Amino acid sequence: MFVILAVVIVLSSIATVVTKSIVRAATYLLFVLLGTAGLYFLMGYTFLGSVQVMVYAGGIIVLYVFSILLTEGGKDEVFKRKAKDASWAFLLSLVGFITFISVFLTHGFKAAVLSAPSETANAATSISSIGSNMLSTGENGYLLPFEAVSVLLLACIVAGLLIARKR
Q1: Positive or negative torsion for Cα 84, 85, 89, 90
Q2: What is the rounded distance in angstroms from the CA atom of residue 80 to the CA atom of residue 102?
Q3: Residue 156, C-beta contacts closer than 8 angstroms, at least 6 positions apart
Q4: 3 state DSSP class of 100
Q5: Which contacts of 33-42 are long-range, i.e. CB under 8 A and separated by 24 or more positions?
Q6: What secondary structure does DSSP assign to 16-29, as a single string?
Q7: Is the pTM here over 0.70, yes or no?
Q8: DSSP string, 39-93
Q9: What is the mean pLDDT of residues 14-20?
Q10: How confident is the model at residue 81 (pLDDT cuts 50, 70, 90)?
Q11: 32 CB contacts (<8 Å, ≥6 apart)?
């Protein structure tokens, strides 16, 4: 199952970058985010997987698609890529990949990736502790970042509606 999800994520990521339609790119991005949620479910992190599906695959993709369709972004022409720009992009991607591989091999992440999550790690993080941390404003509280993101998403929706209204 891991190999299937990894192939779906890699192919969808490539399709997201190389497609010429912005609506198709958003659809391929949805498949990448759903594949990532599948990996969370496969590792036993059901809470993270469900948050991935609800927040990213659900909310963010819907926001992208609505903002594209409201602003007529789906009809935009894609600019022509020059060979010089493509060669720079390939060179920078290659440098980034080599850096990633060197960091991965020198820091010994292999043992941590291959081991399954232990029962004690899952037992230490209960649903009630996650809920109390999300709704608290004190130490280890995440209420302020969630509120900031909700205000940002509301501003994006209002801006998309105003842009669509002016056209």
Answers
A1: negative
A2: 34
A3: 63, 67
A4: helix
A5: 33/57, 33/60, 33/61, 35/5, 35/6, 35/8, 35/9, 36/9, 38/1, 38/5, 38/8, 39/2, 39/5, 39/6, 39/9, 42/1, 42/2, 42/5
A6: HHH-S-HHHHHHHH
A7: no
A8: HHHHHT-HHHHHHIIIIIIIIIHHHHHHHHHHTTGGGPPPPPPPHHHHHHHHHHH
A9: 88
A10: low
A11: 9, 12, 13, 16
For 90-114, give one letter per residue: b (16+ CB within 10 A) or e: eeeeeeeeeeeeeeeeeeeeeeeee
- Tokens (6 digits) for 136: 């608290």
The dihedrals phi and psi of 72, each to the nearest 5 degrees, come to: 55, 35
Distance CA 28, CA 13 (A): 7
Asked if residues 48 and 71 have their Cβ atoms less than 8 Å apart, the reply is no
For residue 157 the two structure tokens come to 């929706």
DSSP 167: -
End-to-end CA distance of the chain: 46
Task: Read off the tokens for 53.
Answer: 């599906």
